[in-house]
């Protein structure tokens, strides 16, 4: 006879069931919320994919092989890159739960000493977020690490490569609002035929101006509407897709066979190859799945994609292809033409709102990218405004916002055509994907310690696909493709010059710092009258005394009784928690009353402007002195510096 379970075991089992239930509810809630943040751009792609693909000289044949071929390319591109590459592989390379280009670069920097950030210290590796698996290097990982460690030019080249992908992502933030809003608004011409193209452009510009003008209010007030809008949009286009399949061509499923891709290229030749620059627009926004990993969980993003986004978009593309197979004359307006008359206006309204959501996601992502670039010394310092007191990631950068608005309006007014915008958009998207593919191959070797065959297979398979689309997009450079190239060149120049100047400044400060012997010769008073108070001197150095202090000693008759050299630096982790943020040590002898305070931030940490930094620093200094007395081991100098925990009750920086 089995023993009766105790009350404790029953309660423990019930508790575990409740935890699982809460966990499932949380994941499903995050999956629903991710629809409005992550998938806005990807879900609005059907507005312009077929239109851009068939904007060239390729003509339709009676057997519809071209339509079937394009659908086959869309299906397999979407399945292989969006589903297999990003959902199954890339999202496994998170950096402490964070994704994006900088997350991959950060992983590589920590495992192979690739970082070119100044002021890096061995003690930084003791950060909890810095923890990494200490597994033995394979022969391939050891060789690759050695190459990067011995040759600075390779490290510089990798940085430029990462910045190129970042610049192209910023280009997405300019092109996404323009093409999404203009594509959505242009549908009104089907019902109001007398509406001129200039009026459509004007309406689009008004929407864009309003959108950018409202950025300083933040998105937290309307963010709750994003997920319902995108959900309604996905349900609309999937329902319309099923309707078109059943009404116009139930045999459209045959186009999923990859043989139609070969038939398409064989029948259309070079024009068909060039038209692939439009096919790649079907995966615009897939990079957001990885980049927004930190705002949600990997599981929630995967659930949202596989359960709703993927099937809805496949049905939408299939339905539009089914309609086109019976209406060859509607190539340039196939999306809105395929909508049943009875639901046209509701779908048009939802499409416009979905385009605004996609634009907002791209703008917010651009703000986040610029913020990370500033943290890594790769962009000039800009004012970062926090628009939400509860969600730290919601920020607004005034200078960047107005710059984006001007560039977005210039693209909309200058091109006035979604086809040309699509050519520019495709080149930017594929370049970012290629950068991710190359970084992932390096992560497989250096971080995951996989065999080089696996990494090369990944690189060749996905890299060849992306190079195919890049080559097709490059053929459209005269027709709008030059825009992301020009923008990327400008941003890349600014970023690299700023990074180079920052490194040169740090090198100059390090070479001209005041020697400790000179400080010791000055005596306890440092040759000045010491007055009550605490003086803070900002410096980029983590060791030694900055040259500016020598200027103070020479030219000032008096200085504060307590001197603190403050160094604010970034480290190669996404976040540094509050209790690990401050490093405090003495500089010189105890009677000098000089301290160094190193304040560490991750590349995704945001320094809030309403934070009482000075009072927190003084509080940390007091704790340091008290612990120094309690230890009874004498003053803790830079040679024996120790990490001092911050007060956990302090607000986050």
UniProtKB/TrEMBL annotation:
Ranges of residues in domain K+ potassium transporter integral membrane: 30-520
Residues passing through the membrane, by range: 67-88, 158-179, 199-217, 224-246, 272-291, 303-323, 343-370, 425-448, 455-474, 480-498
Positions of the UniProt region annotated as Disordered: 628-653
Main location: membrane
GO biological process: potassium ion transport
Entries under NCBIfam families matching the protein: kup
Family: Belongs to the HAK/KUP transporter (TC 2.A.72.3) family.
UniProt-recorded name of the protein: Potassium transporter
Organism of provenance: Vitis vinifera
